[in-house]
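Sample intake sheet
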Amino acid sequence: MEIKKTEKTIEVASAYTPELPSKAKKIGGKWNARSRRWVFDIRDEERVAELYQSVYGTWGNEDATLSDAVIVRMRANKDLYLNEGGFFVGGYMVVSLPRETYKRHGYGNEGDVTVCNILYHAGVTLGKGVTLVEGDFIPKGRPIFGIKTPEGTTIEIKDIPMTVIAANNDKLSKDWLVEIVSDLDNAALQAEKKRLLTRIAEIDTLLGQCKAA
C-alpha cells in the first residue's frame, strides 16, 4: 500500500479487491486511472483510514505490516464455486479469472456476414505470494462465470498480515480450514541484521588496514 498526502488530497495505491470501489465511492473517493490510485479529500482522512483498515487490515504502517506477516495454509472443506471476481482475503488476491478474451469469426458470403464471439479462458491467475499446494482452481465459462474449487484444494499465502487473517477469520472458517504455518520472527531478524552489520564494520576495518599497509 502506498499513501501520498497533499494539502487537499490523500491518494492511495493498493492491491485490487472487488469490495473496495463501492466503499471508496461512498466516502467521496475518485479513481484516477492514470496514477492508478484512489483520491480522497484530506478532510476525510479518518474515514479513509477506517476504510482501508477494514478492507486490508492495515493503514499507513508498512513496518507494522511486515513484522505482523505470516504464512497461512488454507484447505477447502467443501466444493466451492468462487465468483468471477475471484477470491480475496481482505485486500489480498488469492486467485482470479483473467479478463475475458473473445475471438471473432465471420460467416456468410456476398457481404452477408454474421459475427460470433467465442469465449476463451487461459486458466486462472494466482495472487502474489500464493502457491497452489494441492487440488486445482478450474475456470468455468458461460452461463455462469466463476472458479470451481474442489474440496481439499490447498493453498499457501506468504507474507500476509496476521491482522488481515484475524479480521476475516469468521468468514473464512465457513469454507476453509485455516492454519498458520509460520510467522516472521521480527526479533530474530533484527538480531541477525545487527550481527551482519557488525561483521561488515569489522571487514571495513580490515580492508582499511590492508590499504594502510
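Comment: The first strand starts at residue 2 and ends at 5. Residues 101-121 have pLDDT under 50 and may be disordered.
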